[in-house]
Amino acid sequence: EEIKIFAPATVANLSCGFDVLGCCLDNVGDEMIVSKNDLNEVRITKVTGQDLPLETKENVAGVAAIALLKHQNSQQGFDIEIHKKIKPGSGIGSSAASSAGAVYAINKLLGEPYSANELIAFAMEGEVLASGNAHADNVAPALLGGFSLVRSYDPLEVISLPVPSELRLVILHPRIEIKTRDSRSIIKQEVSLKKAIHQWGNLGAFVSSLYTDNYELLGRSLKDEIVEPVRSILIPYFSEMDSLARSNGALGFGISGSGPSVYAMCRGNENAEKVKEAFQNFYEKKDIGFELHLSGIN
Ligand code: HSE
């Protein structure tokens, strides 16, 4: 018995929701093939597309799988094949896709003892291995789809939010690698009250905009005065890309997850195509390689 799944890329933070907000892309992701074995162990049998560890305990998919099986008290073994399309260190949830994909597939093969929401905690174990921190803002949307909000980490409480139908994301990935672990280490641990006020105002307004299909409010809310000003230093042409996105009509712009990818949130395909083209024209003249994605949120 084997199962083949699409393990989606995700955009975490979305500027106003550091570590608590994320969304799931509908056309960018890895493929995974998971099957039961008779060996009482989890094996990573194949990885294509990227050079990642095959040692189960060093692979995020293996670690997430073991967390689930341990909780289930199950001796069942599984073979996991990962066909990577998402580059590690790109900022669109590469490790989350593998962790979430592994627990999603295993849960299916076990007859679904867990709900999608319950799988988040297991997938987070993979994130600990990848980044040293158990954040859920990539694994939650990868498992639940759409937008996810982490109301609380302890106890874990994740809420699914509605997706306005015309939203599109343009993601630009400049080909440099930024490890989440490193880009977390440069963030300040204290926040001023003034910045906190701006941030929770924006996050609340963003959530409201999703329920009311208010695209203008959504765009105004995509701001971050706390983490982006520090992290953007690591990202090539950040402010130029920001201006370019906005002058071409994007609703908002920011860092995708921990970077180096950046996202432009757009209303409708036509606008997204325009922003994508502007990014492409800009980057083609630079000597950094890049990849561009245009995706819906689902
Ligand atoms: N919220 C996490 C961070 C996401 O920004 O570090 C990592 O992809």
Automatic annotation (TrEMBL):
GO molecular function, one term: ATP binding
Keyword Nucleotide-binding recorded: yes
Protein keywords: Amino-acid biosynthesis, ATP-binding, Cytoplasm, Kinase, Nucleotide-binding, Threonine biosynthesis, Transferase
One GO CC annotation: cytoplasm
Domain of life from the UniProt record: Bacteria
Domain GHMP kinase N-terminal stretches: 65-146
EC number: 2.7.1.39
Protein purpose: Catalyzes the ATP-dependent phosphorylation of L-homoserine to L-homoserine phosphate.
HAMAP family associated with the record: Homoser_kinase
Domain GHMP kinase C-terminal: residue ranges: 209-284
Pathways per UniProt: Amino-acid biosynthesis; L-threonine biosynthesis; L-threonine from L-aspartate: step 4/5
Tagged with keyword Transferase: yes
Catalytic activity: L-homoserine + ATP = O-phospho-L-homoserine + ADP + H(+)
Pfam family, one: GHMP_kinases_C
Top EC class for this record: transferase
Entries under InterPro entries matching the protein: GHMP_kinase_C_dom (IPR013750), GHMP_kinase_C_sf (IPR036554), GHMP_kinase_N_dom (IPR006204), Homoserine_kinase (IPR000870), Ribosomal_Su5_D2-typ_SF (IPR020568), Ribsml_uS5_D2-typ_fold_subgr (IPR014721)
Protein name: Homoserine kinase
Biological process, per Gene Ontology: threonine biosynthetic process
Chief location category: cytoplasm
Family: Belongs to the GHMP kinase family. Homoserine kinase subfamily.
Localization terms from the record: Cytoplasm
NCBIfam families assigned: PRK01212.1-4, thrB
